[in-house]
Amino acid sequence: MESLNKEIPMKVLGDITKAKYSVDMNEIVGTHDILFVCLDTLRYDVAFNEQENNGTPNLNKYGKWEKRHAPGNFTYPSHLAMFAGFLPTPAEPIPMFEMERLFIPKDMLANMPAPKGAFLFEGATFVEGLEKVGYETICVGGVGFFNKRTEINRVLPKLFKYSYWHPSFSCHIKNSFENQLDFIERKLKEFDSDKRIFMYLNIDSIHYPNYFYVEGAKGDSVETHAAALRYVDSHIERLFDLFRARGKTFVIACSDHGSCYGEDGYHFHCLSHEIVYTVPYKHFIL
């Protein structure tokens, strides 16, 4: 019997100095607002199909979706990882140390050279790290893990200096994203344009239930999931315009996990199916 006790070759880990960066976060941090948009529960296959069929013309303006793997299979673990700097990673095999990591905990590189494009943050999360360098950190919640009504639902909001949630932002409200945008428009007026902002926005329209985005639908499906994405796309340029009015903004847009609709007998998420852990990702500058 072949031994399973094999050494992993160093090339699998890679050389951190060879990491290729599409953006230098050290030039972004301090000079740009940063907007992190989570399209909660969005599947990669649905995002890709809508992209190719021009169902999402506004999101398409900012480049194609990258196929990536989420760090968790439902909202809570995925966000704890992402806020600690572990954003979705490329779906294709890449040496671990050669992946583009926008935010890296400074403590993790004590004995290693730092990638030139990564922002090394101090603290338990990059949210805390950005606050330490002068950012106002703002969370606008959507799904229940941001509603602050229970101890577990206060964990993620507590990472931010300011955190907000309202019942009208809930995923069972058909126009939840528009309600969030109305709130964000009012809230941004409280901050001078020369004050740097990091905002995290959890858009939950794509999360279940989403059947009401297709007239006559009786339950959630891949089709209603796609219709929910088209609803979000029809309003997302308003969000980007609000930040354009403030100045230069770096945007991270991705999903935290996908969701099954009967594939292989599985439904929804909080399970490790390929559809759940494969997510869309992109970042860009407004």
Written description of the protein model:
This protein has helices at about 10-15, 25-30, 45-50, 55-60, 75-85, 125-130, 175-190, 220-245, 275, and strands spanning about 35-40, 65-70, 90, 105, 120, 135-140, 160-165, 195-205, 250-255, 260, 265-270, 280-285. It has an eight-stranded mixed beta sheet, sandwiched between helices. Helix 7 runs parallel beside helix 8. The protein is of the alpha/beta class.
* Helical residues, percent: 25-40%
Oligomer: single chain
Number of strands: 12
Strand arrangement within the widest β-sheet reads 3-2-12-9-1-8-6-7
Taking all residues together, what is the mean pLDDT? 94
Strand content: 15-25%
Q: What general outline do the C-alpha atoms trace?
A: globular
Radius of gyration: 19 Å
SSE-based structural type: alpha/beta
Quote the distance from N terminus to C terminus: 57 Å
Order of helices and strands: HHEHHEHEEEHEEHEHEEEHE
Specify the biggest β-sheet.
Answer: 8 strands, mixed
The total count of helices amounts to: 9
What does this entry show, briefly?
The protein has 286 residues and is α/β, with parallel strands linked by helices. The chain has helices at residues 10-13, 25-28, 44-52, 57-60, 75-83, 126-132, 176-188, 222-244, 274-277, and strands spanning 33-39, 66-69, 89-90, 103-105, 119-121, 136-140, 162-164, 197-203, 249-254, 260-261, 267-268, 278-285.
Provide the descriptors you would attach to this structure in a database record.
eight-stranded mixed beta sheet, two-stranded parallel ribbon, 18% strand, 286 residues, globular, alpha/beta, 12 strands
